[in-house]
Write a structure and sequence with these properties.
The complex is a heterodimer of chains A (354) and B (562).
Chain A: H1 53-68, E1 73-77, H2 81-86, E2 98-100, H3 106-120, E3 126-132, H4 133-139, H5 141-150, E4 154-160, H6 201-207, E5 212-217, H7 221-231, E6 238-243, H8 247-250, H9 257-266, E7 273-276, E8 279-283, H10 292-296, E9 306-307, E10 310-311, H11 313-330
Helix pairs in contact in A: 1-7, 3-5
Chain B: H1 9-20, E1 44-48, H2 54-58, H3 65-72, H4 77-85, H5 91-97, H6 101-105, H7 117-131, E2 145-149, H8 153-164, E3 168-172, H9 181-184, H10 193-204, E4 209-211, H11 219-225, E5 230-233, E6 239-240, E7 253-255, H12 256-265, E8 275-279, H13 283-294, E9 299-303, H14 315-323, E10 327-329, E11 332-337, E12 342-350, E13 356-366, E14 369-372, E15 376-377, E16 391-392, E17 395-396, E18 409-411, H15 422-440, H16 477-482, H17 493-500, H18 514-518, E19 524-526, E20 533-535, H19 545-549, E21 555-559
Parallel strand pairs in B: 2-3, 2-5, 3-4, 5-18, 7-14, 8-9, 8-14, 9-10
Antiparallel strand pairs in B: 1-21, 6-15, 11-12, 12-13, 16-17, 19-20
Helix pairs in contact in B: 3-4, 4-7, 5-7, 7-17, 8-15, 12-13
The chains are: A alpha/beta (354), B alpha/beta (562).
Amino acid sequence: MNKLDNKQRVKFYQKGTFTVGNRLVDKKARSVQASMERSNAITSGHRACQGCGEALGARYAIDTVMRVTNNKAIACNATGCLEVFTTPYPETSWQLPWIHSLFGNTPAVATGIAAALRVKGKKDVRVIAQGGDGGTTDIGFGCLSGMFERNDDVLYICYDNEAYMNTGVQRSSATPPTARTATTMPLGDAPGNVFGTGKSMPLIAIAHNIPYVATATVSNLHDLETKVEKAMTFRGARYIHIYVPCPLGWGHASDITIQLARLVVDCALFPLYEAEHGAITGSTPIRKRVPVEEYLRPQRRFAHLFKKGAIDTLRIAKIQKMADENIKRFNLLRKETESFDGVTGISLKESKYT
Amino acid sequence: MEEKEKSTPEKDIEKENKNIKKPFAITLDVGSSLANETGSWRTERPVYLDRLPPCNNACPAGENIQSWLYLAEEKDYQGAFQEIMKNNPMPATHGRACYHPCETACNRKDVDTAVNIHAVERFIGDQAIEHGWVPKHDAKPSKKTVLIIGAGPSGLSAAYHLTRFGHKVTIYEAGPVAGGMMSFGIPAYRLPRNIIEAEVKRILDTGIELKLNHKVENVEHEMKAGKFDACFLAIGAHLAKRIHIPTPDTSKILDAAGVLREMETGKNPPKLGRRVVVYGGGDTAVDVARTAKRLGAEETIIVYRSGPGQMKAHDFEVKEALEEGVKLNWLSTIKEMDASGSIKVEKMELDADGYPKPTGKFETIEADSMVLALGQNVDTSFIKKIPGIKIADNVVEVNSSMMTGYPGLFAGGDMVPSERTITVAVGHGKKAAREINAWLSGKTYKPLPKHELASFDKLNKWYYTDAPITVQPQLNTIRRQTTFEEVLGGLDGSNALYEARRCLSCGNCFECDNCYGVCPDNAVIKLGPGKRFKFNYDYCKGCGVCVKECPCGAIKMVPEEI
């Protein structure tokens, strides 16, 4: 009788490679969110909408920071949903030292705190700054660029929901083409937001040659936690851009928040990658590619693309082209060869960037 | 004009601050948002539930497959064994000889390939035999006695379960060994005899008395003589169905059941000759053909009426037979056999509805012997005498409680109307045991309502990684053609574990922490290992993310009561 093929190693991942926890793996290998001792940086009772992606993304990120720093972290918050729903005076959901000043000055406030800690010689206390896409890509952009340029010891996290949700869904420079917002209505020849505008904050951050930049989503928790953890191993300015769906602003059902965050990655409109000192060092390959339509269709902000009998194939094709370019640029369709062994699917060795 | 008290902005703020007892723009209490119970926003609430996994739903023996795979994937093979033993006392046997409808139903087949459930069951069963594990058994003796007639899978299963209920069981078996069709119907190359012996012994060791070579002629008499309170009849179907095939030499025509039985009980294996024709298209026909090959037949041909792919036999059996050199002669019926062994065969063709019909064209096949594998009948000769019993189409009628028309006499297995497999028989034995147990105490058995099915659409497939099925090793062809060694090898510790972990745990929480992790409102409370989770409805806003992100479909939304 032939000997069994022993090449097939015992893996813990057939079931639950990507789940939050996994009772079959070592406790240390499990995510922060699987732990009963997680800090719950944003506790219950906050006023975020049902199914809020930002509330989730912020807890994922800050809980990880809390574990890595042994609960020694200070968070600065820009004005925005995250600030408003967590801290409606006189209550707050935050369970760490947290400060809110203005919409646009958060990186500067964080810089100041980092400087104060340096003066006091407190190396173990780390500073986080965070804001939405409006506070980051528009209003706080100058302060943030300054913080990067000076390489201040701050991790800045942007929770990107692609518009000003808190003030009533106005367009930001992170709003994608064709998306309906209060200021880009689906009317006329170019319905929704126009093509060819906006900016990629992560790529701008990379251009500052700061120690670490990464993108993440709420749909891939292991990837997100690994990146936050990695960011905390560096000193100096670091930037993480987390994609967080918004049921209210995007007009989608509250239960598909994570599903949309998954689809945006799987259709390649939001590539997951990381960079160190100005060079891209890795990307997370797509597990199962889907057409952009699958991501766009469940959202009311794109409903005008899918009118009955008048599907806007031209604009959908243009969006698909954006996704295709991301696939090429970040090499997103390569085989996930090492994903069985690592929890995240990220492997720096696999990077094939030229 | 003067006002009594002048209102100033400062005073207003001070007044407001007094109301809320907090100064403005200063530290707020940590986590003070807990005062805001957002559960009031909810219109629907998530609830945990156990759905019925398709494997469990398909298992004729009613095994809780998901549950024992859950234990097996933790390497708790003994726990898995005990879980199997709650429903089926013969895992090593079933891991080999069951046609595993669980795998046909398995949701994983739509992800990559079905979980190789039978291979894991076999591994657990073999471990149990190797380590001498015995089932847990703590029922108090009931002082009731039950007679079981027939020590096949159904009778053994009933005996085992009745013993677990605390009743004293005696089995009368007409044959020289226990096992019924497991021994007399399934060839040793599929089910080695030491496996049956070990599992039967383990069942008997729970305190069951077995009388071999005891053929019952009068059920009423035996029940009275032994003062039995109830009786379970499970004699199987051992009489070969015959058709008339004109021949001057009947000695060359044998029947499949007889051949397979003789393999087991005869001093010498049956003499089939160099060229063997098997007539029939079921699993038994294939078993006989493969047996003939092993006995040295140079040519073995299965002749059957219908077309290719229309055989009743399971595909894997046909495939294995073809690998061993068995030939198939489809769309053929046998007309007659002459003294020299020439068989006249009429070719058939399929009509528009896919049924075979005669063509009037004939062929000749030379054969040393012909084995008829056309199914088996129940020996009803002594059953007919029992008052109140009804026999229709050669099988005994039973009611929904598996009781015959004679009070206290139950029947199951191949002798009642059903599919004839060992797993169905074991299922009958279990059900009959429950019914008998209830009947003995003057009650009726009420099965628990079934959970709703965990169908494929209830799963979130994204969380499952592609992990291809583990293929069992196969014996090489030469040995398969010449010996009765087991064809399929077993799994070893590492790949059995791998295979168990391919289970998707459909409809049953496997503590992946997803709900706990994905709740934007921290409204899921983790209760610790083995204790699962609960919702904190004070804060759950009812967004439904946990339901969508549960990989196995163990949460659902229900409307909030107003």
